[in-house]
Amino acid sequence: EGTAREVRADISGSGKILAAGLVTDECEVRISGSGDVEIHVNKELDATISGSGSVSYKGNPQHVNSNASGSGSVRKM
């Protein structure tokens, strides 16, 4: 839990970042493999997924940029 102006999350292989209680203005997520990220974003979310990873977000970001190859997904919680 808490707040941040910017968050950058990188997962290579497998792993989880369960930070839905962390409120951030901007978030950049890079997943290569089967990682999962949960985050609360207010302004901008930039997610790149290669593989079967997923990004789940709370909040109403003004911009959501997603690029998923494989079975990766970006979805609002």
Topology:
Elements: E1 2-13, E2 16-33, E3 36-51, E4 54-58, E5 63-69, E6 73-76
Parallel strand pairs: 1-2, 2-3, 3-4, 3-5, 4-6
Question: What does this molecule look like?
Answer:
The structure is a single chain. It is built from no helices and six strands. The protein is mostly beta strands and 77 residues long. It has one domain. The radius of gyration is 11 Å and the shape is globular. The two termini are 17 Å apart.
Which sequence of SSEs, written as H and E, runs from N to C? EEEEEE
What's the alpha carbon Rg, rounded to whole Å?
11 Å
The major sheet is characterized as: 6 strands, parallel
Specify the overall morphology.
globular
Through-space gap between termini: 17 Å
**Tally of domains:** 1
Give the count of helical stretches: 0
Query: What value does the average pLDDT take?
Result: 96
What percentage of amino acids are in beta strands?
Answer: over 45%
